[in-house]
From TrEMBL:
Keywords: Nucleotidyltransferase, Transferase. This is UTP--glucose-1-phosphate uridylyltransferase. Its EC number is 2.7.7.9. May play a role in stationary phase survival.
Amino acid sequence: MIEKCLFPAAGYGTRFLPATKSMPKEMMPIVNKPLIEYGVEEALEAGIEGMCIVTGRGKHSISDHFDSNYELEHQISGTSKEALLTDIRHVIESASFTMTRQRQMKGLGHAILTGRRLVGDNPFAVVLADDLCINEDKGVLAQMVDLYKQFRCSIVAVQEVPDEETHKYGVISGEMIKDDLFRVDDMVEKPEPGTAPSNLAIIGRYILTPDIFDILERTEPGKNDEIQITDALLEQAKTGCVLAYKFKGRRFDCGSVPGYIEATNYCYENIYLPKNKD
Ligand code: G1P
């Protein structure tokens, strides 16, 4: 039903300079796995196999990561180190990858529009890899795909944040239609402090219906003079339906240093250590 997942990955990651001077921020590791690989695994778990990555200059290592490395694999073949490649080999065998380049940085809405040809005229998912989402039971995207099957409209993942943090996010307001699910009636990108319509902040997981592309084509630059997906979604919400889903699980803001460290500690203790007991 949802066959493709778009990964906007052209940003500079300036908060992690100098680490991101020549390395894409999406390749920053959480323990021993790059951020974008966690996102791809989450998409696969949701039954999505087509990964569409919107890259930019200096992002070659992302495509290289999702390909074989013959020399390295030949060298470690038959040794105990080969086990470290199990997850990435599974990802490469299960998914297909297509890339396109965003030539100008004009915001998240523009990045999503750049992926239009890769995605085609079908509903699709969007993952912002620097929001790392972890849920032991069912991943956040899988939870959203289940909802899409029921409601057939765009869905954004939301999380409650303290009032003093709403200015960092797109913030929604809406009527609760059932547990953890809201019908959006307003949405503001990074509201000025004290003006947010609620404390439900959008995090980097979306399911979008393809009419969003025509809306994005005519969306004027908004906050920070960028084309904002939040503005396009507000139009969709006013003319049709957009849902906001308070997901089950944890989300780490790996676009910030404290969130990145928190994610690293969490994954080390809860994923890496249990797998590498000996
Ligand atoms: C983007 C979106 C914002 C959303 C956030 C989630 O902002 O524009 O609506 O809340 O991702 O991480 P960015 O963090 O790229 O500035």
